[in-house]
Amino acid sequence: MNVGGKHLILDAFECDSTLLNNQDYLEQLLTMAAQNAGMEVVYSYFHPFHPQGVTGMIVLATSHLSIHTWPEERYASLDFYTCGEHDPLSQVDVLLKGLQAKRAVVYSVSRGTTSPQLVMSQGMESFGSPKPDERHGGDEAVRGDKWDQIGRQALLRGKHKLLWDEKSAFQHLQMIEAKDVRMYLDGQLQFSSLDEHIYHEALVHPAFTFVPTPSRVLILGGGDGLALREVLKYPSVKHVDLVDLDPAVLQAAKKSKKLAALNDSSLSDSRVAVHPQDAVDFLAANRTLYPLIIVDFPDPTDETTSSLYTTEFYTLLKRCLADDGVFVCQSASLDDTPIVFWSIGKTIESAGFHTLSYHTIVPSFGDWGFHIGAKTALSWEGRQAQIPCRTLPNPLRDLSRFPSTILAKKPLAIVNSKQHTVLHHLFKQENVYW
After folding, report:
1. 354 annotated as a binding-site residue
2. What is the DSSP letter of 276?
């Protein structure tokens, strides 16, 4: 019998104290992480302490996953051990982002061997015993995009199927199936089939409450067809223009059986016109007014993507939006880049829009933000999703409540313009991998 095992010890710092005190949320998060890793949950028990704190354990067929929280210190200690073939490392990003941790130290220990090796943090550098300050979260711990790299590498080391692997003129596209289906672009996670519906419901359906019966919709980005899937649920929609820069992504969304099943074959719908071209070029040539525009671009990580979040871009978009229409824009992570989030909103307003801001938690990514823009003032009053949704609250106003720590960053927001394209620099400054 093979007694070898993999043991992760996680110290998570600067977490959301409210989440650390939420017994039900923590149980759901740990259960999801275990199931994501392909492990069988035998039993779970979580116990709240008074006035604060939670301890809990998921008993697995192959061992255990446990947590103990100190909300007053914004700290959580997690222990994840398996003697099976599954790799718990693939779920580190889910756990840390689910706790909204800002810093972490991750130890990985090989078990069942007479020559154990201890590995710590993202660099995976072997060492003997950590220094005392390293046990409590030194600068060597990292997060952000590198967590995506770690998760992808863990998937590729384990049992998996490579559904799509293509280097296009724009990026390296990979779709990997393990216990879920994940798409990576240049090593960065775009979605997990386990929770992508949370993100796409939040992206699409709140905007529809302001224009409940649009006949024509424009989607910029979102070539995977998942936002398109949600749009096509509305019977009033007669035509959708989907614009994505990379034909490889569009091809995968249509030809990959797994992704086509996930997006309900949305790109093959007769109501859809697919445009493999630059969004700026499309808007510049467009002569149609849309009552609803959905902007699902990548984060502003470099100068090229940052240019899609400028005053000039939103001014161009405004020309294509009906007077009584709205648009919605995905606006990055509140956990990692709150100033970038508020800066996107401020830049939208600089183009003459009124805005509403909101957010939701997507376990694979953490707390994620969005902005709705319109030519006239908007209000959340009385807004409820027009079709059944699995994850959105009613009333939708609940999505607009932000933690005080996030609101405190709003005065630091900047306007990103063609003459002053700095959002990608701000993104990198905020998203320092601790």
Report:
1. no
2. -
Highest mean pLDDT among 67-76, 184-193, 235-244: 235-244
Confidence of residue 149 (pLDDT cuts 50, 70, 90): low
Residue spans of beta strands (DSSP E) within 261-320: 272-275, 290-296
Distance (Å, rounded) from C-alpha 297 to C-alpha 117?
41
Q: What are the chain's domains?
A: 5-157 (3.60.90.10), 161-192 (no CATH), 196-430 (3.40.50.150)
Q: What type of residue is 413?
A: A
Query: What would the pLDDT profile of 316-354 be if each residue is shown by its tens digit?
Result: 999 999 999 999 999 999 988 999 999 999 999 999 999
Residue 224 annotated as binding site: yes
Residues identified as active-site: 63, 68, 83, 296
Q: Give the residue from 327, 200, 186 showing the smallest Cα distance to 266.
A: 200
Q: Write out the two tokens for 301.
A: 């990580």
Total count of residues recorded for the chain? 434
Q: Are 190 and 299 a contacting pair, CB within 8 Å?
A: no
**Is there a binding annotation on residue 279?**
yes
